[in-house]
Amino acid sequence: MFSISVNEKGTVVLTGRLDAAQVDRAREIFSGLDDSAVVDFQDLDYISSAGLGILLATQQRLKKGGKAIKLVHMNRMVRDVFKIARFDLIFEIE
Amino acid sequence: MMRQQFDRDIRSLDAVFSFLHRFAEEEQLDARASYVLDLAVEEFFTNIVKYGRGTSSDVFLEAVRSGGTATVRLEEQTSVPFDVTRATQTQFDVPFAERKPGGLGIHIAREMLDGLAYEYVDGKSRITLTKYLET
Question: Residue A85 in contact with residue A66, Cβ under 8 Å?
Answer without folding.
Answer: no
